[in-house]
Design goal:
The protein is α/β, with parallel strands linked by helices and 261 residues long. The protein has helices at residues 52-59, 83-86, 102-113, 118-126, 142-153, 172-187, 199-205, 223-226, 233-241, and strands spanning 14-23, 26-36, 41-45, 67-72, 87-90, 160-164, 191-195, 208-213, 216-222. The protein has a domain at 14-96 and 160-241: Rossmann fold (3-Layer(aba) Sandwich).
Length: 261
């Protein structure tokens, strides 16, 4: 199923250590530490305003931390010589022009990153988009856009994959495909970090879980460890985070105008 993914280095270790990010004098990420290991799917959960997106943006070099570190195999994203071969990411959907076709978007990214054009057809096939390769992205459903974002993240055969809400907009068949796809990547040694609000889906695929609220890690460990004493991951989540959701209208990051999540 995942031919074309295996020809890359072993999975990368993601290390978040004492990470701090402040906005208008308030900590949106407050002394956050966790590791994400190769060969496992790690679910990253939290209510609104938890600091998930801020943590991921710092990890991917989109924001600067006010303290601590976010490293991929011991190196910050900004210092990686060929970042797309080390970590592939999807934040806020595919990030593609609606006037482009899926194929042209992927070719543009491959050229910009110095990746072989042959990889474009491989990722289109891997993500089930080959028949829609020459369709304009503006005509894509939300689920097809999610698949395109994942295809883009996979172009460099990355050692680690970081996905924000990858199951958003997928129909039941798409969700089933995503479960098998991410699990297959982990089986091949890829480091998979998934941020999501869909706890049932995270429970179906995750080996490890991190729960964060108000910028602090409340629980981390294997799926069984985090949900111990509860009937489900959802029950464990709400027991830990009850009353901790935060809703903010102001922009959080310095440049992108994204509300912190």
């Amino acid at each position: 199923m995942l031919t074309g993914v295996a020809a890359r280095e072993a999975g990368a270790v993601i290390e978040i250590s004492k990470l701090v990010k402040k906005h208008r004098g308030r900590s949106v990420v407050d002394d956050v530490s966790f590791n994400v290991r190769p060969g496992r799917v790690t679910g990253f959960l939290g209510p609104n305003g938890a600091g998930k997106s801020s943590t991921l943006r710092i990890l991917l070099g989109l924001d600067r931390a006010d303290g601590g570190s976010a490293l991929i195999d011991g190196v910050s994203y900004r210092k990686l010589p060929t970042p797309l071969t080390k970590v592939g990411a999807m934040l806020d959907g595919p990030g593609a022009s609606k006037g482009r076709t899926a194929r042209s978007h992927l070719r543009w990214v491959a050229i910009a990153a110095g990746l072989p054009q042959s990889r474009v057809d491989e990722v289109l096939e891997l993500t089930g988009l080959h028949d829609a390769a020459d369709t304009r992205i503006g005509a894509f459903s939300l689920g097809m856009g999610q698949r395109l974002g994942i295809a883009t993240a996979l172009l460099g055969r990355p050692a680690a994959l970081v996905l924000d809400e990858p199951m958003n907009g997928l129909d039941p068949d798409g969700i089933r495909w995503m479960r098998g796809f991410l699990g297959g990547l982990a089986e091949q040694g890829t480091t998979v970090l998934v941020s999501s609000h869909l706890m049932g889906e995270v429970e179906a695929i995750a080996d490890d879980v991190i729960i964060i609220a108000r910028g602090k890690v409340l629980a981390q460990g294997t799926l069984d460890e985090v949900r111990k004493g509860h009937e489900s991951l959802e029950d464990a989540f709400f027991a830990l985070t009850d009353g901790l959701a935060q809703y903010r209208s102001e922009a959080h990051d310095n440049k992108g105008g994204e509300t912190a999540r």
